[in-house]
Amino acid sequence: MTQKKLILIVIDGLGDRPLKELKNRTPLDTAKTHALDQMSRHAELGLVQVIENTAPESDAAVLSLLGYTPSKFYTGRGPLEAVGSGIDFEPGNLVMRANFATTSNGKDIVDRRVARTLTDSEAKELENAINKIRLDVGFEFRATTAHRGILVLKEQLSPMITNTDPAYAIQYGLPHALPKYEMKIQQSVAIQEIAKAQRSAQLVNEFTAKVHRALDKHPVNKKREQRGLLKANAILLRDPGTEKPRLFNISEKFNKTFTIIADMPLEKGIGKLSGMRVIGINVHGEHAQEYKKRLAATLQALGDSDVVYIHLKAPDLYGHDGDTNGKIESIERIDKYFMFPLMAELQKRHHETIVAVTADHATPCELKAHAADPVPLMIYHGTKYKGAAHCFSEKECQRSALYLKGPELMQHLVGKTVTTKPRGV
């Protein structure tokens, strides 16, 4: 019996829908992806329904793809990102994911992410101002990367409250993206009529109001206005939780050593809690050198791990912006600067490696939001394997009989890594 290694590449928001402007093709189908298309000729194609009947957020989606049924294991995005950011909190403390945003008057939202122009250094200055706010509770706010952050309210509270971020909601205990929403900061309300939930909502709303007053005329924002940039003068909160999820040890579950290459707090948190080795990389852009760093980390991890997971964020951003050409070009950069050199390196090293490529969710440009659509899946087996496809696209994947639920994916992939020799060999 021989053992093959596995690389799972999750391209955030890769899936899309046919667009008239692309002659009824998707961005993936339109993009010039020589490496991915070449791989498809030696691969199985199929679809993954990441979470049934849900336009998932990346937190629950990644858990699902790794084999965790979200309805059993999900406890909120806040705790996952807190763990990934190295933020300690006591069980019962309320932890929420935060976005710096732009508001015109403390209520009406101009941009939910400050047009993605906030630098880490600017965010840290604003973090200092936020942590000087006085609340009727101890709290910690931490800016993590760009417009993202974490809020911890240090009191025994309930997560049974609604988000202030209008783009996301909790349904049946799981987060999902809303296809349409009002561009206003929402008042958090208690989902359950219990004192702890009402207290949670009251504190969240108080925090939100005081943050706007603290940031609106902050020197960072005055300088941004002078440069013609949007102010980061509001915080949107979502996906509350009060405890870390109790994830099974993924290496013990599948009898494989796992490594995750992570540049975002979410993936780092999932990696730590699932027992993976975490290789953190401070790379957030799409330039050739940045993909080169991701590739180097992937190959390093492959040297002493059976399974390597890497998450590539960029296409999702363009989907949210409705930028079709931007999404096409982003996919092409992944193909050129990551997939092509990865495959060349594996062939040079004669690696017996399965490479799976999929998405955590679709982010159709026409919606500018996540969708519940099944996502494309490609499982590359090496040049000796003859597949039936000629390219990697949603349409080609739909033609396959392979259809998996999200939590089935990892078991399916790990099963491919064991090859039993024929008798007599």
What does this structure look like?
This protein is an alpha/beta fold and 425 residues long. It has 2 domains: 2-74 and 246-419, Alkaline Phosphatase, subunit A (3-Layer(aba) Sandwich); 79-241, no CATH class. The chain is built from 15 helices and 17 strands. Strands 12-11-13-2-14-15-3-16 form an 8-stranded mixed beta sheet, with helices on both faces. Strands 4, 5, 6, 7 and 10 form a 5-stranded antiparallel beta sheet that branches. The N and C termini lie close together (10 Å). 52% of the residues are buried.
Notable traits:
425 residues; alpha/beta; Alkaline Phosphatase, subunit A; 2 domains; 8-stranded mixed β-sheet; 5-stranded antiparallel β-sheet; globular
Query: Beta-strand percentage?
Result: 15-25%
Helix content: 25-40%
Spatial order of the strands in the main sheet? 12-11-13-2-14-15-3-16
Total of helices: 15
Terminus-to-terminus distance: 10 Å
The general outline is globular
Largest sheet: 8 strands, mixed
Q: Stretches where pLDDT falls below 50 for ≥5 residues?
A: 419-425
The top-level CATH class of the largest domain is Alpha Beta
CATH level-two architecture of the largest domain: 3-Layer(aba) Sandwich
Helices and strands in order, then pairings?
Layout: E1 2-3, E2 5-11, H1 27-30, H2 34-40, E3 43-49, H3 58-65, H4 70-73, H5 77-84, E4 94-103, E5 109-111, H6 120-130, E6 138-143, E7 148-154, E8 168-171, E9 174-177, H7 195-215, H8 219-226, E10 234-241, H9 250-254, E11 258-262, H10 265-274, E12 277-280, H11 288-304, E13 307-312, H12 314-321, H13 324-349, E14 353-358, E15 375-380, H14 394-398, E16 402-405, H15 409-416, E17 418-419
Parallel strand pairs: 2-13, 2-14, 3-16, 11-12, 11-13
Antiparallel strand pairs: 1-17, 3-15, 4-5, 4-7, 4-10, 6-7, 8-9, 14-15
Helix pairs in contact: 5-10, 11-13, 12-13
